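Standup notes
- DV: blocked on the single-chain target, sequence here:
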Amino acid sequence: MDSDREALTIGIDLGATSVRVAAWSPRAGLLETSIFPTRIAAGPVAVVDDIADSVAALLVTHGRSRPCVGIGVGSPGPLELPAGRLHAPPNLPGWDKFPLLDELKSRFSHPLFLDGDAKVAALAEFVLGSGREFAVDSLCMLTLGTGVGSGIILKGRIWHGVSGMAAEAGHLTIDPAGPACGCGNAGCLEAYASATAVVKAAAHFPADSLHPPHPPFADPALPLTAGGLAIAARAGDPRAHSIYKHAGRALGIALADLINLLNLPLYVIGGGVAQSWDLFAPSIFEELHRRSYVYRLTASGGAACHAVHGGTRVIPSRLGPEAGLLGACILPFHAPPAHRDEARSDRQPHLRETPS
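- DV (later): unblocked, structure below
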C-alpha cells in the first residue's frame, strides 16, 4: 500500500565507538542521521538515555508527517534472544547481563525490534544490496569494525540459532597460539581482522617510520587508525601492507571454513575495514584456493558451479558502512511474525513483511 511506503521507521546502530540513529522511509530512504559517541565509561543506562534523546528528536522532526511503525536496533553481541540480554560483549565492557531490550522498551511507546548488529547488516545487504543484485536467497556476511561480526541469511530469514547467538564467526579460531581475544579465547579472527587488531599490529611502529610519511603517522599526537594505515599501505609502506596481508590471510582461513560448512552462494565482507578490500583481497583468495575444496569446485568456472547462481561469490559489501544502520531501519518490516506480534501494541499498525 502507498501509505506503507510513506511510513517511518527509526534505526539504531549501537557500536562500541559510536551510535548512529536514523529516520527512514521505504519511499525516501534515509531522511536524517544522528551520530554521537558511545559513552562506555558512563555505563549502559547513560548510553540508552542518549539513544532515547536522539530518537525523540528525530520523531519530532519527521514523525508528524509520517506514522512511525517501529524502531529497529542492531546491537553488538553476544546477544541472547528473545530476552534481548547482552552476555559479556567483548567490545562493550560493563554491559554483561545488561537487559538492553527491556531498557529500550521502557523508553519507547512504538514497537521495538532488537537483533545483532552484524545480523541486521546482513539483512540490509540481502534486501537492498548484493543479495538483490545477484538474486540469491541466502548469504553470509562478515562485518569488520571495532570487532568482527557476522550474520547469516538462510532462505530469506536471519539465522539466529537456538538462543540468538548464531554466526559468531569473529570468534572462529585462526591460530590457537595467536593473540588474546576479548572473548577469552586466543587466535580468533577478530584478533587479526578487526580495526582494533589492525591498529594494534601497527602500534609498535615509530610515529615517523612509515615510508613515505603520511600525516596520520607524522604527528604522534594524532591517533593511529585503520584507515590511515591503509593510506600508508597504498602509498608503498611494506610494513603497513603486510598488516593487511595478514588480515586477509586470517579472513581467507575463516571464509574457507564457512564455505566448506555452509555452501552458500554469496559471502560478503562489510564494515569500515572493508574499505581496504584491495589490500587484503589477494590474500583471501589465495587462502580460499588453498583451503576450501568447496570453493575450488563452486567458484565461477568450477566443476560444480551452478549457472543459476553464477558460482560461489566472495565480494565487498555493496552498501558499505551504511549496511548496519540500514538493516536496523528495515528490521521492523522483516522481523519474524512472532517478534512482530510481541512488539506491536493494539494501537500500532501491522508491519508488512517486505516494503514494496
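- Follow-up: The chain has two domains: 2-117+324-343, 130-316.
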